UniProtKB/TrEMBL annotation:
It comes from Streptomyces ureilyticus. This is Transketolase. Residues 27-215 form the Transketolase N-terminal domain. InterPro entries: THDP-binding, Transketolase_N. Keywords: Thiamine pyrophosphate. Its cofactor is thiamine diphosphate. Belongs to the transketolase family. It holds the Pfam family Transketolase_N. It comes from the Bacteria.
Length: 233
C-alpha cells in the first residue's frame, strides 16, 4: 500500500498537491479548469478504485483534455492510484507523469491523451464494446474541453452516440470559452440536437455537478456542460 492510500485526502488538500508540480509546460489554466469536475467524479460518482483498475465491471474514465493533466494527477494521487511522491517530478525525463498522460505509465489512466479530439470517439467505441460484451453496468465517462469540439472527429461521435442510444456514455465538457467556432445555441444545443440528455451547470459548484452527473437519462447518452471562468480571465 502506498503512502497516498494510507492518508485520506480532501478537496482542500488538492491545492497543496497541485503546488508540488511545476515547470514551464504545465498548462495551469487547462488543469485548474477541470479540478472540481474531476474531484466530484472520483470522490462521489465513479465506481473505480486503485484495486479495481483491471476489473471488467469498473467504470471507465477517459481524460480527453490531456494537455493539462496536473489536476488529474493530483486527484489520482489523492485517491491512491499514484503515489504523492511522484508529483514533484512531474514532466521530468524519467517521471511516469508526463505532460500528456500515458496509460502504460499512469495507474488508473484508461487512455493516452493530449491530442485534441480523440477522447470522445474512443469513449463511444468503449461504450459500444462494453455493450457487445454484455457488460451493461459499467459507465463510461469522458472529460473534454470546449475547444476540442471544433474537431470533426467529435462531431461524428456526437452524431452517432445519440441515435445509438449509448446510455452508459457520459461526457463532461469543460467550457472555459476557448473554442474558436461558436455554434447557434451553444454547446448544449449541439448535443441536444443529436439526441443526448443535456444539462449545463456551474463547473465550480460541487452539488450542482453531482446532481447533473447522477441524473437519470434512460436510453440516451448524457452530457454535462461545466461552465467555468474564461481561460483568459
Amino acid at each position: 500500500m502506498t503512502k497516498t492510500a494510507e492518508r485520506r485526502y480532501t478537496y482542500e488538500d488538492l491545492s497543496g498537491l497541485l503546488s508540488l508540480m511545476s515547470g514551464d509546460e504545465k498548462h495551469g489554466p487547462a488543469a485548474t479548469s477541470t479540478l472540481d469536475a474531476l474531484w466530484v467524479l472520483y470522490d462521489r460518482v465513479l465506481r473505480v478504485t486503485p484495486g479495481r483498475v483491471d476489473d471488467p465491471e469498473r467504470d471507465r474514465f477517459l481524460l480527453s483534455k490531456g494537455h493539462g493533466p496536473m489536476a488529474y494527477y493530483a486527484v489520482l494521487a489523492a485517491k491512491g492510484f499514484v503515489p504523492v511522491e511522484w508529483l514533484p517530478a512531474f514532466g521530468s525525463y524519467d517521471s511516469p507523469l508526463g505532460h500528456h498522460p500515458d496509460r502504460v505509465l499512469v495507474p488508473g489512466a484508461e487512455i493516452g491523451s493530449g491530442s485534441l479530439g480523440h477522447g470522445l470517439p474512443i469513449a463511444v467505441g468503449t461504450a459500444l464494446g462494453l455493450r457487445a460484451q454484455g457488460l451493461h453496468e459499467p459507465a463510461v465517462w469522458v472529460l473534454v474541453g470546449d475547444a476540442e469540439l471544433d474537431e470533426g472527429s467529435n462531431h461524428e461521435a456526437i452524431a452517432y452516440a445519440g441515435p445509438a442510444g449509448l446510455d452508459r456514455l457520459h461526457t463532461v465538457v469543460i467550457d472555459n470559452s476557448s473554442a474558436s467556432y461558436a455554434r447557434p445555441g451553444g454547446i448544449a444545443a449541439r448535443f441536444e440536437a443529436a439526441g443526448w440528455s443535456v444539462e449545463s451547470v456551474d463547473g465550480r459548484d460541487h452539488e450542482a455537478l453531482y446532481a447533473a452527473f447522477t441524473a437519470p437519462h434512460p436510453g440516451r447518452p448524457r452530457v454535462v456542460v461545466a461552465q467555468v471562468e474564461p481561460k483568459s480571465a
